[in-house]
Amino acid sequence: MGKRASSDPDRVGVELRLLVGQLFRELRNDMTVSGLSVPELSVLGRLDREGSVTAVELAAAEQVTPQAIALTVASLFERGLISKTKDQRDKRRLLLEPTPAGRTAMNAMRTGGADRVVKALEMEFTAAEVDKIADVLPLLGRLRDRL
Q1: Are 13 and 6 in contact (CB under 8 A)?
Q2: Most exposed among 48, 53, 128, 134, judged by the fewest C-beta atoms under 10 Å?
Q3: Does pTM surpass 0.70?
């Protein structure tokens, strides 16, 4: 990956997809240490970042079926990592949110993964290279939002 990729969107798209997949697989090792599955971590992380939502809203955000989200939610609830509370405005709706134990689990997982990335950046990259990576982060966020 030493050379610059072509600016052709087809080639950049393919190379980016491959690289992101490889990065995800590498960082996923940090996630499995917690004993939670990738879908459970994704749901718990979303609730931690975005706040209380219903299971239907969560399924839509995670792009999974209501049945799949029900299984994930049940597992997280049984472990005491999320709670279910009635919506104060509409008592028919149940809102899901992380418990203090759920927030602690997410923070530990994020810190562990972030530590590996920080260490690699500090040991293997110059300050100028870290600046280049930082410059690309908003663009990657925008790309994520468009997918």
Answers
A1: no
A2: 128
A3: no
